[in-house]
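Provenance and format

Records in this collection were gathered into a single text stream. Each protein contributes a sequence line and a token line. The two records reproduced below are adjacent in the stream.
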Amino acid sequence: MGLEMRARCERCETTALPPDGPARICSYECTFCEACGAALGQVCPNCGGELVPRPRRAPAATAAVARAGAIGVGETGRALVHGLSDGAGERADGHADHP
């Protein structure tokens, strides 16, 4: 399962955090903008865990997962790697997908 990619900082709540922009997260996905992360000393105020850079999600990856539809995580990964058009076991080039 992918990260939730929360859109707002949990501390200041005013900073919009786009999926492809910088943010800080802990292992529980508490999410903070860069400024609040620095002000907190890179320590999550909720769990005491380390705040680390959140991976950025490229817009193209978001679109590919959305096109794959509501399929299992393993299927989504295969869809992205093999270019499945609908996640139903057939590749975009019309050949059957064999795991």
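Adjacent record:
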Amino acid sequence: LQVINNVGHPCCQVGIESTVAKLVPDQNQLLVFRRGGVSEAALHDVLNVQRGLDIAIVYAQKVVADHSAQNQVAPGQLLTHYAPDVPTFMVNSIPTPTTTPNPSDQDIHTWVIIDFNRRLRTLQPVVAAYLDLSPLYDTRF
């Protein structure tokens, strides 16, 4: 990744995931386990154009397991990789002044809200933490 970071490509403008890959020299392959902000074109540019190598970029078939005695090759391959260890809920409705919970209700002061387009902003003053991933309703930021 240090090589990729030095090629002058712009910073990732999409998502929060990193590109996870493994170089397999004896097969002249770069095995990509997870697509992320580093594009196939950028990988090709660094390996084959700038370094003069002949490396094929191959995408690994995604394997997700409930449990495994084997070590995982890349992050995110266990079914529980992104599973929080606290009760988690998806809220599908926008609270109105009449439906906004009272701070004493259901321990709302311990809640952490991850919002999108400020839909749940009325809860910000009464929860433990509030983060809006895109106040402008734009998935590119």
